[in-house]
Amino acid sequence: MSKIFLSPEELINKHEAPYPCWREEDILAWYYDFQIDGIEKQGKILIDESSFTKLLAKLKTRK
Predict the structure, then answer these.
(1) Which residues pair with 41 in a beta bridge?
(2) pTM for the whole thing?
(3) Domain total for the chain?
(4) Fewest CB within a 10 Å sphere: which of 20, 49, 51, 59?
């Protein structure tokens, strides 16, 4: 299982334009739901990369 550190801003900025139907609140809710063990480093949380991939798949199919 690959893990990455990601900030909320990075996630929102990366996906807001291609997926305008997702609100910032939707993305932040997902972001904090998938935080691993409350680990945070320099404003970024640790998440499982497979969870991130699942979110991208949902973003692509949401209308």
Answers:
(1) 44
(2) 0.53
(3) 1
(4) 20
Whether residue 46 contacts residue 35, with contact meaning beta carbons closer than 8 Å, is answered with yes
In whole angstroms, give the CA distance from residue 11 to residue 27.
8
CATH number at residue 13: 1.10.238
Burial of residue 20 (number of CB atoms within 10 Å: 0-12, 13-18, 19+): exposed
Which domain range does residue 24 map to? 3-61
CB contact burial 29-50 (16+ within 10 A = b; e otherwise)? ebbeebeeeeeeeeebbbbeee
